[in-house]
Model the fold of this input.
Amino acid sequence: MTHSDFDSFRPPEPARRRRTGGKRGAGRRNGGDGSREMPMVPEAEFTSYYGRPVVKPAPWGDDVAVYLFLGGVAGGSALLGLGGQLTGRPTLRRNARLGALTAVSLGAVALVKDLGRPERFLNMLRTFKVTSPMSVGSWILSAFSAGTAVSAVAEIDRMSGERLPLGPLRKVLQAVEGPAGFEAALFAGPLAAYTAVLLGDTATPTWNAAHEELPFVFVSSAALASAGLAMITTPVHEAGPARKLAALGVVGDVVATRVMEHRMDPVAAEPLHEGKAGAMLKWSERLAVAGGLGTLLAGRNRAVAAASGLALLTASALTRFGVFEAGLASAKDPRYTIEPQKSRLAARRAAGITGDSITTAG
Amino acid sequence: MGQLSGPTDPTADAHWEHNHPRKGFFTDTSICIGCKACEVACKEWNHNPQDGNLELLGSSYDNTGALGASTWRHVAFVEQGRDRITEARESGRALVSLGMPRVGPPAAAAPAGQDLTGVDTTPPDTADFRWLMSSDVCKHCTHAGCLDVCPTGALFRTEFGTVVVQDDVCNGCGTCVAGCPFGVIERRSNGTVAVAAQRDEQHAEHPAVPNVGVAQKCTLCYDRLVDGETPACAKACPTTSIKFGDHDDMVETARERVADLHAQGLTEARLYGANELDGVGGTGSVFLLLDEPEVYGLPPDPRVPTADLPQMYRRAGMAVAGMVAAAAVAFLGGRA
Done:
């Protein structure tokens, strides 16, 4: 600051604005006479570096959300397929197996499409890393697909009147069909649940804050979606278990989602209620409840069963897309990274734990 | 598999059998002049392409924006007035008063003036304005989120304790991008270079962007380290704001420096990443900051997500059991 004899001739200075924050919000001139910098955005309660994100969002497109949904449908269908296999429901078994294969194939295509270098997909199968949910998941997906493919091909062979050019392998196929159904069902639950760990094990604020309950939300969503698919494809007299699974799935989905939102850091949970993601999750719950009620009250009516099934499938897709979008939104706004971290740091300090801060005085 | 959290020697965790000391940076932002020589040297040495269009971002002298796939050093510029300087001084003083445990030599060896509680060391001349400049870089964490979640093994721990991407192994899945609590690593996209239409000819001469679709970040100049050289940014830094050396030496230097600054009354000085008990097990790149970390765009309490992975697997296992049980109930009930 300089002082000169001419200072007294200057017009009085306006009262100094208190500038908290290094800078808040994105800088852009938006008013005044242009002679000085104006406050850009309403003062926020946190400091960030020009409003820029701290963490980076996963570079994943909608394909990954589609995969989250289809993986759940495939996993649940494999369980229904095994149930049909064990309890003598051939139509349910066939439809569930075919549904599982279709869903897992489309899901795998979506996943490969989203890789930065799709030609390197097999690089994930050159190693197994238990610390990487993506690695664990790629092995779960492979193991699941093997069993699902064998059991579904057996169904296709039967449907086509044994016209697939299998030769002597047909006997092998028929012998391993049952065990393959078991094998697929063994990896069905992990296929539906690992994606929750994949999202939870990131620095993306909303996903990370949800890591305790997200697996429950995802398996519930998988159960109701696969049950919904079976209710669409299978006549009501064989779809009894699917209806029950749908009802259990809806209850699990609604309860787990509520518990998750309740237990999360309130700031990190905000993206689940706001914008596109908030709307999707709201509709997801409505459709799940509607589908569940339809199933319970009139699930023995073929038309109502199919409509309920469609509602449940849509609800599951919306859950996955909603959670996915909410996470990406939380990574793009520094507030969701900084505020929960500051409050947990303050809480630890208030509790007398001062030794584990990344910022130290020496 | 090594530890997922807590203090550890990352090189030994990765089963390196020889005994290289861990290498790291100490970035002393109190003597950074914002020349961006580090950014330039890094780009030149690593052949990193242009990152986005050339544009003014309206954030002081920072037109780089953030660390990214093609920007491995980023100089932050923050302009602050007197109020904010006072606040920073207070928050730094509060840190000292917390009685943070010191690792290393006991208090007797530490310089005097550690306990600043109640002592008025504020110089009479709190500045009206200050310009914070800080060269940010990959933290090369002890527990690196990116490394742990990489499904291909493309990311690996080097013999120097640093974290490096093998671009020929990476399949571009992007998990590491979400796994980094500091927002450092990024998948490189092409199409970032868009030059004005009338300069088409020059545009055509731009070399093709290498490693498109592959995760990229600071390697701590692995190729230079194996030859016993200093990383390009540290070599180019004209004020020695970026120091490079054995990690232990860097932490010690940082502690001495912050004690010096405190003794001068600059209580706003604090270290970032020097505590091996923090959420990432301490960082390989240690920083001396003059304000809260979020002011520089750093997370105030980062925690490597993988630290909670065992718990996540347990919860997922419970969820799977619940799903199987629900299916069993559905079928068993249906039989009756």
Summary: The first helix of chain A runs from residue 62 to 87.
